[in-house]
């Protein structure tokens, strides 16, 4: 884990120096290759399935965002209650999968707790949007009837 942290720090530094023209792309690639090797070791040491699940989830979210950007009216789509609820359910499923793993470790349980907190946050956010929409509709109906 510490070697991975070190490799990531070296990559961050190489990228920063590349942006300021102090390093060439070859040096960035060397640092990136080291990070790639470290990530491969994380995969081999039991984190592969979780990482792959998260990668799929993030790629799906990216695809949704890119699709939303190409729609004509995408204002507020990222925080629509249905999307927030779906994200909360996804986080809940991830937490359940981590918690129910056969060899669930303390780290898995902490990560599950993180996903549960994320799910709760999304549910609260969705609830607030629903309340706001209901209040807006009530205000509009009072104005129309007046």
- Biggest sheet architecture: none
> Got a strand count?
0
Determine the oligomeric state from the structure. Answer: single chain
First-to-last CA distance: 66 Å
Ordered list of secondary-structure elements with their pairings:
Blueprint: H1 2-19, H2 25-70, H3 81-100, H4 106-145
Helix pairs in contact: 1-2, 3-4
Key features?
4 helices; 0% strand; 146 residues; mainly alpha; flat
Describe what you observe in this structure.
The protein contains four helices and no strands. Helix 1 packs across helix 2. The chain is flat, with a radius of gyration of 22 Å. With 146 residues, it is mostly helical. Helix content is 85%, strand content 0%. The longest helix has 46 residues.
Question: What's a concise summary of this model?
Answer:
With 146 residues, this protein is mainly α. It contains four helices and no strands. The chain has helices at 2-19, 25-70, 81-100, 106-145.
């Amino acid at each position: 884990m510490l070697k991975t942290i070190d490799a990531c720090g070296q990559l961050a530094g190489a990228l920063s120096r590349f942006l300021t023209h102090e390093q060439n792309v070859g040096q960035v690639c060397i640092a990136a290759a080291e990070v790639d090797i470290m990530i491969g070791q994380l995969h081999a040491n039991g984190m592969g399935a979780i990482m792959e699940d998260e990668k799929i989830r993030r790629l799906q979210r990216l695809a949704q965002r890119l699709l939303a950007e190409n729609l004509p009216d995408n204002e507020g789509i990222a925080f629509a209650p249905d999307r927030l609820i779906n994200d909360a359910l996804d986080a809940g499923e991830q937490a359940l999968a981590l918690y129910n793993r056969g060899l669930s470790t303390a780290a898995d349980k902490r990560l599950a707790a993180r996903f549960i907190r994320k799910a709760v946050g999304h549910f609260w956010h969705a609830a607030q949007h629903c309340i706001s929409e209901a209040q807006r509709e009530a205000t509009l109906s009072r104005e129309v009837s007046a």
